[in-house]
Amino acid sequence: MTKQLDVSNIRPNVRKVEFRLKDEVVDRALSYKKLFEDKDPKTSELKFPDLVFFNVGDAHVAGQKPISFYRQVLAMIAYPPLMDNPPAGIPEDAVQRARVLHKASAGLGAYSGAQGLLHVRQTCAKFIEKRDGFASDANNIILTDGSYDALKIGFELLIRDERDTILIPAPGYPLYSAVIREIGGIPQHYFLEDKHQFNPQVDELKRVYEQAESKGQKIRAIVINNPGNPAGNVLSRETLVQLLKFAKEKNIVVMADEVYQVNAYDIKAPFVSLRKISKEEDIQVEMLSFQSTSKGFSAECGVRGGYIEFYNVDGNTVKEAVKLVSVRLSPNTTGQIILDLACDPPTEGQASYPLFHEESEAIMGQLRRKAKAIEDSFNSMNGTSCAEIKGSLFAFPQIHFSEKALQSAKEAGLSPDTFYASQLLDATGVCVSSGNIFGQKEGTYHIRLTLMPTEDRVKVALDRIKTFNEEFYRKYQ
Amino acid sequence: MTKQLDVSNIRPNVRKVEFRLKDEVVDRALSYKKLFEDKDPKTSELKFPDLVFFNVGDAHVAGQKPISFYRQVLAMIAYPPLMDNPPAGIPEDAVQRARVLHKASAGLGAYSGAQGLLHVRQTCAKFIEKRDGFASDANNIILTDGSYDALKIGFELLIRDERDTILIPAPGYPLYSAVIREIGGIPQHYFLEDKHQFNPQVDELKRVYEQAESKGQKIRAIVINNPGNPAGNVLSRETLVQLLKFAKEKNIVVMADEVYQVNAYDIKAPFVSLRKISKEEDIQVEMLSFQSTSKGFSAECGVRGGYIEFYNVDGNTVKEAVKLVSVRLSPNTTGQIILDLACDPPTEGQASYPLFHEESEAIMGQLRRKAKAIEDSFNSMNGTSCAEIKGSLFAFPQIHFSEKALQSAKEAGLSPDTFYASQLLDATGVCVSSGNIFGQKEGTYHIRLTLMPTEDRVKVALDRIKTFNEEFYRKYQ
């Protein structure tokens, strides 16, 4: 008798989900880490004194401190007696903010309604209005447990059957394809190239669209990730206009994954939302746009806050989405509180502003410098190059392999990028992600680095990478 | 050209989801509430001085205070400087606990791994071991954003296609059928009856099973909710043994929704887990069991904490479940912290114990007294009766309608239970839920009350209900 929950007997779509952010290289790095933690004598056989996890996307794990204002407010809401007797050093405006949010939520322990707290949705709507220059409606916003949850709502509305197809970027974050497969649709990659600074090209989109259509697929939407993970790109206004025109021409939904919108580092290449351009250029498309507490400078990943905004979408469909989330009664309250604070941080003149400004600017400055250091480093070495890192929290340098190196990778049974990452780890203790995890145009190979390690550790890692890379280059020349 | 997100063009399963906890009666109560808030002169036309929301399942909204220990620990983790300089009155063991959890989590802002923090899973495993008398494995536990999330993982593993069927209780919480429909399976009710104190009967299960099978449905699992919402039942050991034998005979999975396990009020009818009985009676079935932070005495609904434990389930299927949740990277950290504290609260001898004991016992005592008052009240009135309220946070008294009352309800175009609830609201300001929201055996009618209003308000409401009911009874006799 087959067991009901035998793995051969579970939902097929669950088995079809593929998701990995780690490969054998990261697994090995973690086993090295354990050796160091256990003070294992085997560490003396390693070629490096310690590890640098240049693959980790979690700022707080990498040592970044939370923004004080956010956490002061949260702590007082968590334990309300603190609002009456604030601990020393907590500014008055933080106390006031805690009172407002505590009242609006009936506390952390209360359900907040399926759509999330109206107060927080109104804060998000004002944030969007300030960003784009025209109003957003709090009724069209659903607060979520992080952007995963928000994206999933979008995909679930869109995918009707197994022909339904979503265009997603490659390189791109593996979440998209995993969720699309879980729901039973087809994730279809469009490729971004270094030579275009990872700006999507309409020719490529048309190629992919037509190929998919010719196979009987029904293209429902395009995901645009700007600023982008892992490419570190911030899309040009011209590119965004072209993308909107393409979506309008094909009558497909635009899913604007703009969770890294605060993470734009180049004053000459600011982030502009697709929503704003759609309005300004009068290119009306159905649009879902996404935000998260996990990014920006605060990187509050663990609290799981985010939103989906429906723009130019049938009101009855928004109602269906609200019905869908109503089954779970409420997104988590902590994520909503942090989202509120991130969308409406202290402003000049408020008591919390000086510290908030200092902390956030310090983090942004570090991110900017780390991005520049990584970019410069990979553009100065033999056999590597790096597109401009204008945004997000990642770098995606390209490794150009010689025929000899490609042959050696093949013999080792590894993708060339994994071959490089693997040797890099064993030679230097620097752990990076292989580009193939994120997808890459055929015949190109990359590694992904995050901007999370401290500046000191980034410098250490880049020095080690340089030494390794020059040796790798010489060896396989 | 049809819009992609026109409501006619979205995923059919989304449209099929039905979920409501409110009906027109609750909507009207909310409109009355607004009149009172706005000090609208129209309130003088109402027959009552204020409202009692006897339908609301949110203890914190109803005025219950959070457990101090939980929130003290959470506040210090939220704003770590408080761990070094604890505010006056925070006991040392709370500070220690915050330090341990802060270290185990790398703080609220860090991802905690897809399965949730190992530390918290180990706490849950110890809690289960203590409860059942034999070990639980932290590797078989996934921490979730509330029990909705946990139940959904179970349903998603089980439902392969549109024939797959899950047996669910009626009366029961509407979440089950909503999620099963969303995933594309069939929710199949088995009925619980007042006369059996809402203990499921094997004859009824066999009837439903055979009927479903004869239609070509494939029964995959049975949901058992104990203690039960809305019935207020705690299942007898004998019933649980029979249910396990039935599940074993039919080779179906047992989904043990035991989120109200702390809410058992009758010493003579304690909660016993299905897992414990399965082991003690050696009735081995595949089992998923569920817990939540939203229930018990702390009722921390908004933080969204919970777990699913896999018991006697193929290890590869557990791996598939972990893969599935890995896409979202992490359940929210606040929910995990509160779950840890609820599974391992202060014990005698610890500095936090006296206050914790006082607060939790006070709440449990109130719940017990409220349950008794409601039960007694409905058993003492004409035309109403109430099964013993042994557990959960609800009461589900039956209203026995005369032919005349049934006829009047029909003429009003309302289900009889809604007809009663509607008249009750307009006559007294007491808002209750109609039984048909939860399902009820044909020809029986109920209302659902929650144990959430304060004891004072429960007394006020029961008095008003009594007056109304006697008049209703006389009128339709």
- In total, how many beta strands of chain A? 14
Which structural class do you get from the secondary structure elements of chain A? alpha/beta
CATH-assigned fold name of the largest domain in chain A? Aspartate Aminotransferase, domain 2
CATH architecture of the largest domain in chain A: 3-Layer(aba) Sandwich
CATH superfamily of the largest domain in chain A: Type I PLP-dependent aspartate aminotransferase-like (Major domain)
Give the number of domains of chain A.
2
- Rg value of chain A: 23 Å
Note the main sheet of chain A. Answer: 7 strands, mixed
* Beta fraction of chain A: 5-15%
Strand order of the largest sheet of chain A: 2-8-7-6-5-3-4
- Assembly type of the shown chains? homodimer
CATH class of the largest domain in chain A: Alpha Beta
Please give the alpha-carbon distance between the first and last residues of chain A: 59 Å
Q: For the largest interface in this structure, which chains are involved and how many residues does each contribute?
A: A-B, 88 and 88 residues
Arithmetic mean pLDDT of chain A: 96
Helix content of chain A: 40-55%
Question: What is the global morphology of chain A?
Answer: globular
